[in-house]
């Protein structure tokens, strides 16, 4: 396949490296400021899936440099860059192109499918952890499940989705077709919303959050508020109640990732913007649409945004 990975960050480098190593023609799109670090077009991956290296067919800051027909575009930019990215992506979407939205949080699939059409838009729930060592070089730190791939609109033929899932799996990244991928995405929204901002605010691992009764109470409240919002919006979840989900969360999800620090933690440390608006911020927005109060999620958002601003200010000063 001819593949474009739009966003060569922690996830994008992993996808691009494995897919190129498996014989696909792969192009990367990254920000202009990173191009000097990627002149040789070589990407590297290390960590739990071993050491891998691949030379891409091109790395650019714009899709205007890509002249071939593209079969698959993996969108791996941060959620706050989605609207800008999809306008670029639209330039190279042809009749037979699929865009795989592989991002954190709520709203990315909605933005992309509205702009380029549901018949071109697939959704992926990604739950492996990847950390940037330096531009073009990442470390895979944890994997909790397959990359789940599906079509929430049910307009794309299943065989096409399975073909893409199999290509990613064959390349070495665990992946599978998921008929109910939207529910699976909300599993991750629950997981990330409970853990990521608190891990960033308190600068600690997922296990530490679960071990302390104070932070456990905050996470319980975050989860309960999300269930209330989902019910109000008729969003189907894989769990019948917050109690059922919390049991799964603490018994099955936390233990294998107990030593993991959230990406928000690293974003704050590096003075970068976080994806809080696509997680707890999205919950607050959805709650307001229905006149629902979500005080814990709102407080977490306000605290994280303050810490984000202070981090950005410190970076500017230094």
Give the SSE map.
Blueprint: E1 2-6, H1 10-21, E2 25-29, E3 42-47, E4 52-55, E5 58-60, E6 72-75, H2 82-89, E7 98-101, H3 108-116, E8 121-125, E9 128-134, E10 137-143, E11 147-150, H4 158-171, E12 175-177, H5 181-202, H6 206-211, H7 213-232, H8 242-253, H9 263-269, H10 280-289, H11 295-317
Parallel strand pairs: 1-2, 1-6, 2-5, 3-10, 6-7, 7-8, 11-12
Antiparallel strand pairs: 3-4, 8-11, 9-10
Helix pairs in contact: 2-3, 5-7, 5-9, 5-11, 7-8, 7-10, 10-11
Describe the structure.
This protein is α/β, with parallel strands linked by helices and 318 residues long. The chain is built from eleven helices and twelve strands. It folds into two domains: 2-179, Rossmann fold (3-Layer(aba) Sandwich), CATH 3.40.50.720; 183-317, N-(1-d-carboxylethyl)-l-norvaline Dehydrogenase, domain 2 (Orthogonal Bundle). The protein has helices at residues 10-21, 82-89, 108-116, 158-171, 181-202, 206-211, 213-232, 242-253, 263-269, 280-289, 295-317, and strands at 2-6, 25-29, 42-47, 52-55, 58-60, 72-75, 98-101, 121-125, 128-134, 137-143, 147-150, 175-177. The strands form two sheets. It has an eight-stranded mixed β-sheet, with helices on both faces. A four-stranded mixed β-sheet has the order 4-3-10-9, with helices on one face. Helix 5 (181-202) crosses helix 9 (263-269) and helix 7 packs across helix 8 (242-253). The longest helix is centred in the last third of the chain and has 23 residues, at 295-317. The model has no long low-confidence stretch (mean pLDDT 95).
